[in-house]
Amino acid sequence: MNGFGATVSRILVLGCPGSGKSTLATVLARRTGLPLHRLDDEHWGPGWTRPDPVWWKRRQETIVSNDRWIIEGNYLPTIPIRAARAEVVVVVDTGTFRCLYRVVARAWRIRRGDLGGLPTAVAAEAARGTRVKATRDLGALLWLVLLFRFRGRWPVVDAARTNPDAGLVLAVTPSRGRDRAENVRKALRRREIEARTVGTAEVADLIEGWAVPARQV
Fold first, then answer.
1. 81-92: per-residue pLDDT in tens?
2. What does the alpha-carbon distance between residue 47 and residue 122 come to, in Å, rounded to a whole number?
3. Contact (Cβ atoms closer than 8 angstroms) between residue 92 and residue 20
């Protein structure tokens, strides 16, 4: 079957901070016309305040109850809520140092006045003249990125697999000097995980031909 919107209507995009998942989700939204929900915009309130856990869970349940969406963002404990309704889950796999560079570069741009990388509520504060931080805790975020490949990647993949009907795609960012995609494939085989492994630039084309099983539609 051809035609992205005719086959896949619910896509979950996951990955390490700085991996490029926001950029990929934007590309997919443009290609598909599906509404894009960024979880950072939903999660963070003014002053980088966290939501009530009960409200946060119910908010995600409300979003996934819709028939058409792309949802971008990790928030590991609630991934199963989103995965349960997803037709395709894309996990963006990017090298640690590239992720670190992107996180630092984004924080620098925000401090210089570029509000594009801020959650909606925090950006609104900044637009009103309030001085805001680039992130809630930059040091903790950098530590999370540094350890993600060793401690975070496979818990994210496992949480995404709680829905056996959803297709799993590992979107690998190219890297010089080694075949990262092949390394990811080997790691998947060792863990006996069934998934498609492609470059990030190939994800949209791959899903264009994806036929969703009738039980998922």
1. 999 999 999 999
2. 6
3. yes
